[in-house]
Write a structure and sequence with these properties.
single chain, 288 residues, alpha/beta, Rossmann fold, 6-stranded mixed β-sheet, 4-stranded antiparallel β-sheet, binds adenosine-5'-triphosphate
């Protein structure tokens, strides 16, 4: 295992419990339980699991959108467990970790031009507050680096395709020059050919600058293409963890096997998934 002191993000025995819905007689919801992982500089760690397995809740705790119920969650050694109290802290956190959502259409301000969206992020997150022209030039360079030439700067989000909008969301994240980008089902809504383009873009970005990805997905084919390591979550718990290529080539845990069996590929037989027993939740929580 790598040296923990090198990790940018460290999660140790992380837990998130949501109270039972008001007026219901139900139990509190344990969305994340005893989850441990590390994210290292310039690596892509995937969090994999079916809907409701707790992936997004882990990400939301990392960016401060949810508080931590128990356990440790640090970014560069600073705890994120208690949430942010001051605007200055919120900005500092955002400079370290940026979030790209599945649906860029709802996360981008539809009334702002593309150039202004990225320029605002540059102005907000660059230390020493850059001048207007400097912020604009930096924004144009970033847009260019995600494959959106200068003609896109004057357009509005609704004038762009889904893939182009996701490029804008990535550009806006890059404008903060973060150490980590959380990509939460960031290609799930795109056609396969557009997905491939965005995944290539993410690989190119990582080749050019030091940035780590926490790549959240239910899609193992996508995860296989983009990540070096993965953790597999089922009902809030990490049930499998390791090098992506190895885990997918030789999945041992029944849940990982059942997930992999659901990925269409040459020779894939729909009946196979039914024959595989789906794992019961495991109390094991290996660190990744
Ligand atoms: N704010 C909340 N209040 C109550 N329960 C929540 C809340 N947010 C998430 N949950 C519950 O926590 C569990 C994990 O949800 P989470 O969204 O983290 O899973 P996920 O793996 O990201 O799934 P999806 O891909 O569908 O978002 C689910 O049972 C969900 O209903």
């Amino acid at each position: 295992m790598s040296n923990p002191s090198e990790a940018i993000v460290v999660a140790r025995n992380l837990q998130k419990v949501f109270p039972a819905p008001r007026g219901s007689k139900g139990e509190p919801i344990v969305a994340v339980d005893d989850v441990s992982f590390e994210l290292h500089p310039n690596e892509c760690l995937a969090i994999v699991g079916e809907s409701g397995s707790g992936k997004t809740t882990v990400a939301r705790m990392l960016v401060g959108l949810e508080t931590v119920t128990a356990g440790e969650l640090t970014v560069r050694g600073e705890s994120r467990a208690k949430g942010v109290k001051h605007l200055a802290d919120r900005r500092r956190w955002a400079r370290e970790v940026q979030y790209v959502f599945q649906d860029p259409y709802s996360s981008l301000n539809g009334r702002q031009r593309i150039g202004d969206i990225v320029e605002s992020s540059v102005a907000l997150h660059t230390r020493g507050t850059p001048g207007k022209r400097e912020a604009r030039n930096t924004a144009r360079d970033i847009l260019d680096s995600v494959g959106l030439g200068s003609q896109f700067a004057e357009k509005f989000p609704h004038q762009l395709s889904g893939g182009q909008r996701q490029r804008v969301a990535i550009a806006r994240a890059l404008a903060a020059n973060p150490a980590v980008i959380v990509l939460d089902e960031a290609v799930a809504a795109l056609d396969v050919s557009i997905q491939a383009q965005i995944l290539n873009l993410l690989t190119d970005i990582r080749a050019e600058r030091e940035v780590s990805y926490l790549f959240i997905s239910h899609d193992l084919a996508v995860v296989n293409q983009v990540s070096e390591r993965m953790i597999v979550m089922e009902r809030g718990v990490v049930v499998d963890a390791g090098a992506t290529a190895e885990l997918l080539a030789n999945p041992v845990h029944p849940y990982t096997r059942s997930l992999r069996a659901a990925v269409p590929r040459p020779g894939w037989k729909p009946l196979r998934r039914e024959r595989l027993a789906v794992a019961s939740p495991s109390s094991e929580s290996p660190a990744a």
